[in-house]
Amino acid sequence: MSFPNAATASPPAVPSPQGIDLVRVCQEFGTPLYLYDADVIVRQINELKNAFTYPKVKFKYAAKALTNISILKLIHQQGIDLDVVSVQEGHIAVKAGFSPSHIMYTPSGVPFAEIEEAIELGLQMNVDSLPLLRYVGERYGSQIPCCIRLNPDIRAGGHEKISVGHNESKFGIALSQLDVIAEVVQQYSININGLHIHTGSDIKDAEVFVQGAQRLFAAARHFPDLQFIDFGSGFKVAYKEGDIATNISELATLLENAFQDFCLEYGRELEMWFEPGKFIVSESGYLLTQVTVVKENPGINFVHVDTGLNHLLRPMMYDAYHEIVNISNPDAPLQPYNIVGYICETDTIGEGRMLSEVRPGDILAIKNAGAYGFSMASNYNSRLRPAEVLVHRGEAKLIRERETLDDIMKNQIEVDL
Question: Domain map of the chain by residue range?
Answer without folding.
Answer: 17-36+282-402, 106-276
